[in-house]
Design goal:
Blueprint: H1 2-57, E1 76-82, H2 92-103, E2 110-115, H3 117-126, E3 129-133, H4 144-156, E4 160-172, E5 175-184, H5 209-284
Parallel strand pairs: 1-2, 1-4, 2-3
Antiparallel strand pairs: 4-5
Helix pairs in contact: 1-5, 4-5
Length: 285
């Protein structure tokens, strides 16, 4: 009897869990659609300004633009790590941190700016230098001007020789991959090994490359950070939706198994009761 009560209680618990995870799945799906639209809408512009700035970098005088100058060799490398504030994401953050640890395993002079509490916690436990954390202000995109100012000031003063950004890149609702991108100093495609921009032709630049570069640079850095945040948010909601779907399916499978055990236990109990009744009647006779 006690066994039947325990199984019934476990079935009820599994049912409650499935209801909670299904609700979280639906919420994540709703947020994912909005985040996905935002990420995909801004991605073409981010890619184009990234390509345009690097294409122009080979046509202008680096001394005329501070962000094109090579950083001081004595400076540290700064990494902007974009993760999440919450869990229940499957292996999204774990994969990101594992790849980052592999990328930076031989990097000694590294500092971190984190956006996301999970990233902050990892950097602290990893024993690396945490320069600043921007996890408290929501939405994360509201931190872009502050992060960009910190990065530009540190780079131009020689504190940082390079600035990189690390985040989970949104590919599809089922696939996200860790991405590591150099954003400062602004280099040409040949210098970072990316090859030529697709379909690059000779063209006229008016009024001149330096003027165009002056107009692009203020937007370039903030746009790269903002685009990475949007990609990371779309990845977060996609990963949570899939994780909650898997959790719901697992809870339903557990309910099926427990229901089978419950029915077997009931049949066994009924069989014993019938046997007791028959034995008692035979004893009376």
């Amino acid at each position: 009897m006690a066994n039947i009560k325990i199984i019934r209680r476990r079935i009820k618990s599994a049912q409650n869990i499935s209801q909670i995870t299904r609700a979280m799945q639906m919420v994540a799906a709703s947020k994912m659609k909005k985040a996905q639209d935002k990420a995909l809408a801004g991605k073409p512009y981010a890619d184009k300004i990234y390509a345009a700035v690097r294409n122009l970098a080979g046509r202008v005088d680096p001394e005329a633009h501070n962000l094109l100058k090579k950083g001081e060799s004595s400076g540290s490398k700064l990494y902007i790590l974009i993760s999440t504030n919450k869990g229940l994401l499957g292996g999204l953050n774990t994969n990101l941190f594992r790849h980052m640890a592999n990328w930076l395993k031989n990097e000694e002079k590294a500092e971190f700016v984190t956006i996301g509490k999970k990233g902050e916690s990892f950097v602290v436990k990893w024993g690396r230098k945490l320069t600043a954390d921007f996890s408290q202000n929501l939405p994360f995109a509201s931190n872009v001007p502050a992060v960009a100012k910190l990065v530009v000031d540190g780079f131009m003063s020689g504190i940082y020789s390079e600035v990189h950004i690390i985040y989970s890149n949104f590919l599809t609702a089922l696939k996200q991959e860790p991405l590591h991108r150099l954003i400062l100093p602004i280099t040409t495609f040949e210098e970072v090994g990316e090859g030529q921009v697709p379909d690059v032709r000779e063209f006229l630049i008016e009024p001149d490359p330096n003027t165009v570069m002056n107009s692009l640079l203020p937007h370039y850095l903030e746009n790269q950070i903002r685009s990475a945040i949007f990609e990371a948010e779309a990845s977060e909601h996609s990963a949570r939706m899939i994780a909650m779907k898997n959790a719901t399916d697992a809870a339903l499978d557990l309910m099926d198994d427990l229901t089978l055990q419950y029915n077997k236990a009931r049949q066994e109990k009924i069989t014993y009761e019938i046997a007791d009744i028959v034995t008692a009647r035979m004893a009376v006779e």
